[in-house]
Amino acid sequence: xSEQTIALVTGANKGIGYEIAAGLxxxxxxxxxxxxxxxxxxxAVAKLRAAGVDAFGVPLDVTDDAGAAQxxxxxxxxxxxxxxxxNNAAVTGGMPQAPTLVPAATxxxxxxxxxxxxxxxxxxxxxxxxxxxxxxxxxxSSTVGSLSHQAGGxxxxxxxxxxxxSKTFLNAVTIQYVKExxxxxxxxxxxxxxxxxxxxxxxxxxxxPAQGAAIAIxxxxxxxxxxxxxxxxxxxxxxx
Length: 240
Ligand code: NAP
Prior knowledge:
Layout: E1 6-10, H1 15-25, E2 30-35, H2 38-50, E3 54-59, H3 65-79, E4 84-87, H4 104-129, E5 136-140, H5 147-151, H6 163-180, E6 187-191, H7 209-220, E7 231-233, E8 236-237
Parallel strand pairs: 1-2, 1-4, 2-3, 4-5, 5-6, 6-7
Antiparallel strand pairs: 7-8
Bound molecules: NADP nicotinamide-adenine-dinucleotide phosphate.
């Protein structure tokens, strides 16, 4: 089996996910560019390869069971294992999102992508992660998912019944994975990129995608005595 570290980043065709792929690729890793749209995926892979990254395309819509299984087969054929999974793909579902008005369909789409999508891809990849010497899972969360942050006032962004709650849900699910996998060498952490200028917020963010990617890269490269089950931004642990 190859000694080269292999990672898969979901939603890696643009934004923070693209920069996570670029950053991990810069370490000499092979990076699977998980993306649902063929053209956007191929463009991202070509750009990463032109920058010297050992990137390969992984067709992956995180809302699709069969697609997640096929993605795992592709990674297995490529490397026989997976060392790092970054669950980055997400949608907001569109704003405004007042809880009294939000359509049920928006709630379903956002949870299906941001929470169930992470469960689906993680479970598809777990057999491959278990073959790694130092497996890492990074779930991209957000401070808007922090209940204490939301309840404490401060700058919590727009009212967002689907998106913010989906990140709280994701954090809660992640902790259940941490409990179940406590006896394994798999480390799972949640990363918050800060307010980053991407499509997700109409490019209103104040940080660059590369700055947003830094926390995911740090959590993807944790040493064996590093933390698991944490919720971090660049400054350190975030209150739940
Ligand atoms: P973005 O530019 O909108 O990128 C989102 C990525 O997710 C895109 O590649 C998109 O692919 C992909 N995606 C969406 N639904 C998918 C699906 N069903 N299957 C596969 N891929 C799918 O957003 P971003 O700002 O980089 O966000 C990256 C992560 O950081 C997200 O988890 C987000 O919640 C989190 N985050 C962002 C901010 C911020 O300020 N930007 C703050 C806190 C947390 P398509 O191109 O096909 O749509």
